[in-house]
Design a protein that fits this description.
The protein has helices at residues 38-48, 59-64, 69-78, 93-102, 118-132, 179-189, 204-213, 222-226, 231-237, and strands at 2-10, 13-16, 26-27, 53-58, 83-87, 106-111, 137-143, 146-147, 162-167, 194-198, 217-220. It is of the alpha/beta class and 247 residues long.
Length: 247
Amino acid sequence: MQIIPVIDLKGGRVVHARGGDRAAYAPVQTPLAAGSDPVSVVAGFLRLYPFKTLYVADLDGIMEGAPDVRTLQALRAAFPDLEIWLDMGVPDAGMMGEHFQKLARIRPVIGTESLRDGNEFLALSKAIESATVQAPILSLDFAKAKIIGADLMQSPQLWPDTVIVMTLDAVGANAGPHDTLIKHLRAATGEPKHIVAAGGVRDKADLVSLAAAGADAVLVASALHAGTLKAGDLIEVAGLQTGYVSS
């Protein structure tokens, strides 16, 4: 199982995501870094474990349509070998293509919360692939067990190879992940997909449970900052296999 650390960017700082109430997110306080500077926080993650991928939620882009390109450039310069998955909302396909051309090795994430329907996702996917030569990742965004924005739950044929199951109300809530939702999504794919769980992870036991449910990877933040996921846990969990078995 792959573990992917997360930073939420707002106003050039890393903020602590809690329950999806983005307007109330405050700068993160973490033993992994002296402050909330994004480069310092990511460096703290990498001292803990040699992560290969970083997930960035650009809240200025998602909420205001004004992506924080300066911070993204600083992260790219500081960590050239790190693959970055970036959700910055969906300003428009042309703008996304322009930003991603400037920022190498950054893979776009498109969340259903920013979409009207499946046709919009297909159009954006084609435009982004044409501009960046990278297939976007789809984030199926949920709150209170209901999908937000475009309901692509009924259209697994539109899903790309990598799909994130994002339970926004579970983020930072210390209530545990939604294993049942992962099981449902895994069964709905009808073919092997790379399914990434996001939201609610508290400790190693939650990662083990998500692997058994069929998650190939997990996004984490709060458990890393709180120290309930330690380096030894990450090393052990890296060897876990998904519970999904191809027929």
